[in-house]
Write a structure and sequence with these properties.
two-stranded antiparallel sheet
């Protein structure tokens, strides 16, 4: 557990009436996610911005789209290039592609960042 998770754990314990609950129960009561669950959300938001062109030079070619006309799935799948090294599975692109491809079509086809964030909250709560 990292330092930020410890801070969140202690901060939620300081809220009157929630001291007796477990950390997970406090998060549910407050409508929060643990930091471990929020990391993929931040990564997916960054990926959405890359794909929409927010980072033109820095994000150029970082993701490869796997276009599909299949009726099932989100239709905006990202491709994973094969890596031989085990440590590369922890790279940003590898982590994002795994989560992105599991999202529903209406989430990844969001017209704006605000809409994506709202839909992402719902989608990730169903996936986690």
């Amino acid at each position: 557990m990292d330092l930020l998770e410890q801070v969140q754990r202690k901060a939620t314990k300081m809220i009157r009436g929630l001291e007796h609950l477990s950390y997970e129960e406090r998060l549910i009561e407050l409508g929060l996610f643990s930091l471990e669950e929020r990391r993929p959300q931040g990564d997916l938001i960054a990926a959405f911005q890359y794909l929409k062109g927010a980072y033109k030079k820095a994000g150029e070619g970082i993701f490869t789209r796997a276009w599909s006309d299949r009726r099932r799935g989100n239709g905006f799948k990202l491709k994973v290039d094969g890596f031989r090294l085990e440590m590369r599975k922890k790279f940003f692109t590898m982590m994002v592609v795994r989560h992105w491809n599991r999202l529903p079509r209406e989430t990844v086809a969001a017209p704006s960042l605000e809409v994506l964030k709202a839909r992402l909250d719902v989608a990730l709560s169903n996936l986690v």
